[in-house]
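Contributing: when you submit paired examples, paste them exactly as shown. First protein:
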Amino acid sequence: MNTVEAFNQALFLFINGNADTPGWVTGLALICAKYLAVLVPLVLAGLWLTGRDWPREVALRALLVTLLAFLASFLVGLAWPHPRPFMIGLGHLFVPHAPTPSFPSNHATAFAAVALTLLAGGLRRPGAVVALAGLAVAWGRVFVGVHFPLDMLGAVALAGLAYAVLAPIWWSCGTALTDALIALYRRLLAVPIRLGWLRR
């Protein structure tokens, strides 16, 4: 075992819960690991529904960065299918999970991609909320035994790479793409917009 993997496993065992962990801590970790991910689509949808062009543009960019990061994550998993802790009998598992590649974490990838894009786009409050929630999710998924700590750092790196790759493409056509999607949104949802149920 190399030094990095030894450190990864040692840090995992330090964070991972066990039979002596208080029930409320385990419960909190399960909530973070399983349910906080819903915050990502809710934040993006909320930014779109503000009715303002810039939040919509940043939300769309965040979605595309996330999708690109997911593609990179999938390719990394194919090229290097690192096992999850429970697949090698390490630590305690608190929630069932399929034996898929561990590195990088898709949950952390989504949070990192969205938080990075929102913060870079000047949307500091929603960006900070997503970033803090992402830290909670990262802790929770290591605690319940489905990920290693370095899976989370790998996710942040992939999100940064995806943002850097998409940036020059976005600056050339991002506004036009956003305008086209806004026009489509207004056409498809014309009735609820006219009734005041949705913002234009």
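Second protein:
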Amino acid sequence: MTIKTEIKNQIATVTLSRPEVHNAFNDEVIKKLTETFSELSKDNNVRVVILAGEGKSFCAGGDLNWMKKAIDYTYEENVEDSRRLAKMFKTINECPKPVIARIHGTTIGGGVGLVSVCDVSCAVSTAKFSLSEVKIGLIPAVISPFVMRKIIPGEARRYFLTGERFDASEAKRIGLISEVSLDEKEMDKKISEWTESVLSGGPEAISACKKMIHDISFLNTDEALELSSKQLAERRASKEGQEGIKAFFEKRKPNWSGVNY
């Protein structure tokens, strides 16, 4: 089993389960992660997803044996292989449910790509990161659109080109992760706080907010304002929006379960 999925109290925990290779991904992991997040995106019983790694690391990027096979691929086969990888990152990135990364140990190459497609992330202080593709004559091509939108503009130049390792505090400084915790116990407490915050919001509003973030990032100011004005009007007129506003003025918790249809 390469991926483990557990759903409890509207929270799905997806765990990379190849600890013997530091959760490096291969064809099977790519296929399974894509399928898993596609299914979770449609599951109304899931409100938030936690992405974690089993064993000593979060994710060491591409499996060496998987990459070794590419030596004998034709150009066309390599393109198709890369497209499957790109689809995995895109599927996670566009998941309508908030995705939280739980990071420990080592996170390398494509593992950094996984972090970059999560909405919120927490790492223990001992975690290490690297975009090391250039060290083996490759480039962080497929993950670059996601990493470059996540981190401080310009920092990609340094870390893409040097391949140097950096720690959790630096990962937070450049915007790759959200928080740093002293240990895994503190990290799980922080993640629990985030999941509770997500569950207190309107399910449809959360999904609409994620879509808005992605849509607006590609628009100029005028286009963004026009789109966001329409989206706000839609939310105000929705059953969920009406319930949220009424609950606020009536000083009660909104009954989100009563407006899911």
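If you have annotations for the second protein, write them as plain sentences, like these:
The mean pLDDT is 92.
The longest strand covers residues 3-8.
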